[in-house]
């Protein structure tokens, strides 16, 4: 690598000062100050939002910790109830099959049962 002479250094310094002066003339100081002020406002708002979200996350975590045990108990209870109901309906179907075999006239056929069944259809939308 070659050494730079003092005259070349001075020339480079003058050229870089000229380039930086040209860049400074392209930028309006008032615009830069406005941009800085706007960025500072945005930063403040983002910090406030971050604080609110952090507080909400802490609150949500606390609520979840309080309720998760209860949700687990209720879920186990519902699964137990479903299992019991499945067992009951299996027994009822079995009993109905035996009764139908023993007393065929005790249960009306499907056309007659639809006429006798006056309960509303809960699967269809209300009109």
Task: Give an overview in words.
The protein has three helices and no strands. By secondary structure, it is mostly helical. It holds the Pfam family KxDL. Belongs to the KXD1 family. InterPro entries: KXD1-like, KxDL_dom. This is KxDL motif protein.
Annotate the secondary structure layout.
Blueprint: H1 6-26, H2 29-102, H3 110-116
Poorly predicted regions are: none
Largest sheet: none
Rg over CA atoms: 41 Å
Label the overall shape. Answer: rod-shaped
Topology order in helix (H) and strand (E) letters: HHH
Strand content: under 5%
What is the helix fraction of residues, given as a range?
over 70%
**Overall mean pLDDT score?**
86
Count all strands and give the number.
Answer: 0
How many H/I helices?
Answer: 3
Structural class: mainly alpha
Distance between the termini: 92 Å
